[in-house]
């Protein structure tokens, strides 16, 4: 695996450890009931956010040609955007 040089390998390791952690900043909510399990929105709200706030929102849909991927791919991004005051969402969809 010569293409995974040490700096790239470190970035991948950090992304994977962040991607699968159950962090305090993450909220999951069902948005589509299905027989095999509900689809979820993975939401990172800014600190102090309330339902009455008017804030910008961004929604990420993972890549993979609508065939593979997971919402956790965007956890590092939605977490950082929430720190900037944006409600950031990573949506799950059927693959």
Describe the structure.
With 95 residues, this protein is an alpha+beta fold. It has two helices and four strands; from the N terminus they run H-E-E-E-H-E. It has one domain (6-91). The protein has helices spanning 6-19, 75-83, and strands spanning 26-32, 39-44, 57-61, 87-91. Strands 1-2-4-3 form a four-stranded mixed sheet, covered by helices on one side. The chain is globular. It starts with 5 loop residues before the first helix and ends with a strand. Mean pLDDT is 77; it is low at 1-22. This is Alpha/beta hydrolase. Residues 1-23 form the signal peptide. It comes from Coraliomargarita algicola. Keywords: Signal.
């Amino acid at each position: 695996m010569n293409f995974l040089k040490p700096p790239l390998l470190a970035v991948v390791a950090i992304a994977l450890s962040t991607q699968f952690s159950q962090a305090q900043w993450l909220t999951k909510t069902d948005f589509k009931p299905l027989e095999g399990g509900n689809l979820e929105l993975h939401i990172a709200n800014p600190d102090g956010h309330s339902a009455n706030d008017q804030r910008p929102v961004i929604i990420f849909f993972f890549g993979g040609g609508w065939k593979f991927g997971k919402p956790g791919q965007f956890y590092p991004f939605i977490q950082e955007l929430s720190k900037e005051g944006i409600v950031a969402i990573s949506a799950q969809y059927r693959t």
